[in-house]
Amino acid sequence: MIIDAHSHVHDPVHDHIALLDEAGIDRSVLFGTRPHPERATDLASLKDELTVLHETVSGQTDGYEEAWRELHNACADKRFIGFGKVRLDRAAEDVEREVIGRGFQGIGELTPPPGQAHQIEPVLQAAADHGGLPVVVHGFAPTTAEDLATLAGLAPRYPTVPLVISQLGGLNWMTAIELAAQTPNLYLDLSTANVIFAVRLAIAEVPDRTLFGSDAPYGDPVLARITVERVTRPGAVRDRVLGDTLAELLGL
């Protein structure tokens, strides 16, 4: 089974399904979102959507209710595996209501303020309390190298929780790989990696904890799959990266 470990709700949803079909992807983890860059038709409209993205990752806007609604509706299609975003100051309540209550299978994508990665600890506790739900944390800016180290320090306290750093840690990909190699329940999703060499090294260092992802609509599922296939040989390692590892984590 090939599973995209990282994607966001598209508008309209059927465009996303068409991308999965083109890439030969069986299922996709789906996160809620406020910005919709796929709606943009020119540079001006893209800037508008990216302004919403900036406000979202910097904590200047809420918009949870609308994002939850979009995600819930999109996940009516069984190609999608819903992961619910929760408020860091209401982790236990939101995990119970907006993740477990909606039948989602993980938590994310979380974006704590820069230098504040410790704020996700209540989410890790709630994930552990519900059987070890996977938790995905934004890895690119504004997440810093220090934040990645904080996440790696928190992970061992909750060994049943797979903690996933997305976007291969962004510009801090070498730090992310080093930390994952040292931390048994720290995983890396390979979405929108900066250089193909980073993908090759991540898979070489932690082949059982690297996850294929596209970050669609910011990335392209076809290109993301080709990237993994470009740096691996056919066989067990490629299969694990493209979906087997995530299928095990989710009990699929």
UniProtKB/TrEMBL annotation:
Name assigned to this protein: Amidohydrolase-related domain-containing protein
Any GO molecular function: hydrolase activity
The organism of origin for this protein: Labedaea rhizosphaerae
Domain Amidohydrolase-related: 3-252
Pfam families assigned to the protein according to its UniProt record, in alphabetical order: Amidohydro_2 (PF04909)
Superkingdom to which the source organism belongs: Bacteria
